[in-house]
Design goal:
Helix content is 2%, strand content 22%. By secondary structure, the chain is mainly beta. Strands 11, 13, 14, 15, 24, 26 and 27 form a seven-stranded mixed β-sheet that branches. The chain is globular.
């Protein structure tokens, strides 16, 4: 019988080239893996349980980290959080299981165990057991509480019992620790969640998941805290009482236990558990023993792992110049459009693309210039490009220059990454369009259109920005830019230039290396604003070394967290080693 490893007897070969791409799944559906992926590492977090009524905190959903074979499209189910109990004689509802099916096998964690309510002890049918166990109610404490599942969670804490007037219940267990017992001063805190960010960097909620819900307290006392990782806090019992806090969505956190309402004497319900989440990391690795022939075949199939890392980037083109209207009298020039804005990992989430995988080597970078001043229609800026020799959209990213603002000789705004605003209209029948943004179109969009003018509106319109379209005349505001912290500082990029009102005056230039559009102007010798030059930033892991040439073209730095940052403000070459 032929062997896929060239006749070598031993472990079955498996190669995967997943580039360590991380996908966060927050609702049920299919996960589409990259063509070269054959092995994944996953964090499967089930729904947290509801808290008990005047009782224990809900247990966190089970957190299971598991590596297994997977390829193509894999279906995933995200478990919902369990409902909090509204009756002293019922348990908080258990969380729902999260699961993923790959290569014919189902991989799942266990939903959280329900918090025990006021009049209940351990459930004979295990309703308080789960990924992490529910906290114990006070009437049956100190005593048994909900149990957790090995390698997924921990037990809940015990209730304080009727021997003390605090009547405090235990916290639900978390993935990282046992729920705290009830105390003389209040319910026990929920167990800590687990921090998975070292294995799955950049995940939501700072990478901490599956915290237990805090236990409730019957008599006045301190409210308990939910465990870090999405657990809801348990209620204290002033008059009137309060329900427990719900676990956070897509964390698997347990719901907090409810407090007590002395009138009309009914227990207050527990908080609902938080829904689960699945985080998938597509691995680059090759296991087993390989012959040269089988290595070659794996490379042909695109599954042989390459050396490299994922990087986040920011590419902003040069902004367009504002337009100038020396004549006719009474109209203002349009604002310049912002340079195209493309980014991953940082900045507003709707504009974040995926990180890129890069191997060691040289990468040529072009920094786009801002549009220059002109006596009439504002010139466009120029494009910024990361990796000019790469494949666009894979390891090469081009941001398109901002469009120039409308002015004397051509009153419409020019298209670009963001479009330029139109000049003012000198007579009632004249209408001028703003330049079209996101030209050429990319996803997420790199910018917005400039503002337009119609009906004898004399002020110039605003240029488009990365966050918004430019204002239509008679308003003159440019479209907003967007904040981004990839360099470690919070800087706003790609704002549209303002149109010029009908009064005489110059327009401001866009700030250096922001890609902002220049402001419009009115009448000679006034000058329209130049567009701001662009910028390119690459941010990678601590294991890499960045070198820039020529050296003045870039600033190389290390973030306090260890990431390496290359900030290019002039064209050059980045070497990754």
């Amino acid at each position: 019988m032929a062997r896929s490893n060239g006749g070598i007897i031993g472990k079955v070969n498996k190669s995967s080239f997943g580039k360590d791409v991380i996908t966060t799944t927050t609702s049920s559906g299919d996960i589409t893996l990259q063509p070269g992926t054959r092995i994944v590492n996953t964090a499967i977090i089930s729904g947290g349980a509801g808290g008990g009524a005047n009782g224990g905190g809900g247990g966190a959903g089970g957190l299971l980290i598991k590596e297994f074979n997977a390829e193509g499209t894999v279906p995933a189910v995200i478990g919902g959080g369990g409902a909090g109990s509204s009756s002293a004689c019922s348990y908080g509802t258990q969380g729902v299981v999260s699961s993923i099916v790959a290569c014919g096998s189902t991989h799942a964690s266990v939903g959280g165990g329900g918090g025990q309510s006021q009049n209940l002890g351990p459930s004979p049918s295990g309703l308080d057991d789960g990924g992490s166990g529910g906290g114990g109610g006070y009437k049956c404490g100190p005593g048994p509480k909900g149990c957790g599942t090995a390698c997924q969670g921990n037990p809940g804490g015990t209730g304080y019992g009727l021997s003390h007037p605090s009547y405090s219940s235990g916290g639900g267990g978390g993935a990282g620790s046992v729920g705290a017992d009830g105390t003389t001063s209040g319910g026990g805190n929920g167990g800590n969640g687990s921090d998975i960010s070292p294995t799955f960097p950049g995940t939501p909620n700072s990478g901490v998941y599956a915290g237990g819900g805090g236990g409730g307290t019957r008599t006045p006392g301190s409210a308990s805290s939910g465990g870090p990782g999405g657990g809801g806090g348990g209620a204290a019992s002033p008059s009137p009482g309060a329900p427990g806090t719900a676990g956070c969505t897509n964390t698997g956190g347990g719901g907090g236990g409810g407090g007590y309402r002395p009138s009309p004497g009914l227990s207050i319900h527990g908080g609902a558990g938080g829904s689960g989440i699945i985080i998938t990391k597509e691995l680059s690795k090759a296991t087993g023993v390989w012959s040269l022939q089988s290595q070659f075949q794996a490379k042909q199939q695109g599954t042989w792992p390459e050396v490299g890392f994922n990087y986040d980037y920011l590419v902003v083109a040069g902004g367009g110049a504002g337009g100038n209207t020396p004549t006719p009298s009474g109209t203002g020039g349009g604002g310049g459009g912002a340079g195209g804005y493309r980014a991953s990992g940082y900045g507003p989430s709707p504009l974040q693309a995926s990180s890129i995988f890069l191997s060691p080597g040289d990468y040529a970078i072009t920094i786009g210039g801002g549009g220059a001043q002109a006596p009439g229609h504002g010139p466009n800026g120029t494009d910024s490009v990361f990796n000019t020799a790469g494949v666009e959209g894979t390891d090469k990213f081009t941001s398109t220059a901002g469009g120039g603002g409308g002015g004397s000789g051509s009153s419409a705004g020019k298209p670009g990454g963001s479009g330029g605003g139109s000049a003012g209209s000198p007579e009632p029948g004249s209408s001028y369009s703003g330049g079209t943004g996101n030209t050429p179109p990319v996803s997420p969009p790199q910018g917005n259109s400039g503002g337009s003018t119609s009906g004898n509106q004399k002020p110039g319109s605003g240029g488009g920005g990365a966050a918004a379209v430019g204002s239509n005349s008679p308003s003159t505001g440019g479209g907003g830019g967007v904040p981004n912290t990839i360099t470690g500082s919070d800087v706003t990029y790609a704002a549209g230039g303002a149109g010029r009102p009908s009064s005489n005056g110059s327009g401001p230039s866009g700030s250096a290396n922001t890609g902002n559009g220049g402001g419009g102007a009115k009448s000679s010798p006034s000058s329209a604003g130049c567009g701001g030059p662009g910028i390119v930033v690459l941010r990678g892991p601590s294991a890499v070394t960045f070198t820039a040439s020529p050296s003045p073209s870039a600033t190389i730095s290390t973030h306090p967290g260890g990431n390496k940052i290359a900030k290019f403000t002039a064209s050059g070459t980045l070497t990754i080693s």
